[in-house]
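TL;DR need structure tokens for one chain.
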Amino acid sequence: MAPTPTNGDGSSTNLLKPTPDQITILWLIGGYMAGILILWQMPYLKHILYPFKLVTIGLHEFGHACMACVSGGKVKSITVDPNLGGLTTYVGNRRTQCLALPAGYLGSSFLGAILVFCAFNVVASKGAAIMLILCLVLTIFWARNLLAFGVCLFFAGITALLWWLDGGKYLKYFTLFLGVMSCIYSILEILDMLVLRKSNGSDAEQFAEKYGIFPAQGWGFIWLIISLIFLVGAVLAGLAAFKDDDANNSSGTGK
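>> reply
TL;DR here they are.
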């Protein structure tokens, strides 16, 4: 029988039971999700999300580009369309295409999940911010239109500013929102394809044409499940991994 984790005083603890600080993060995640879903297609107010959609598209394209490089390909360009589209062009072999096509949705979902996971700890959120800035800088390097260049530079600058501002006190709330946005964007885009059958020209459509086995909606459903696993797994892992913040905040010495 596996041992039960214990606190310092010998009492047992439930790793998934949230601390007060973690409850705040959970409420923020729920609030961010609700806000994104409400604003997504709301007339006029949906424009509030417009810059966040653009940077999420940039991270989606970064997923394609990163996997193309890892699998031996060469990235030629990344572009972001003002009509909320994006394109990554690269050269490579059949393996490159097989790995790079799913990496748009799955890569941005995974990146978002890392940001969500790290938001449960202040120090971890700073590490996640470094990772985010690096991803944005690489996207800038591959960017071949002004919008892709500008939106990634803007969000990299905001992230760096929040790192510096007031000791990074507000950084984790910003990176958490970007993480939730990245996860939700991928999930909603895949759902849009599954429900409304908007698969023409999509990553799933291209993947189905090249590799078969399932139709585009089938691959979209698989990617949807994986994206949901990333998000739920990030929350559960954050709850289990970061239990020390409350203890550090409540402990101290008096004079």
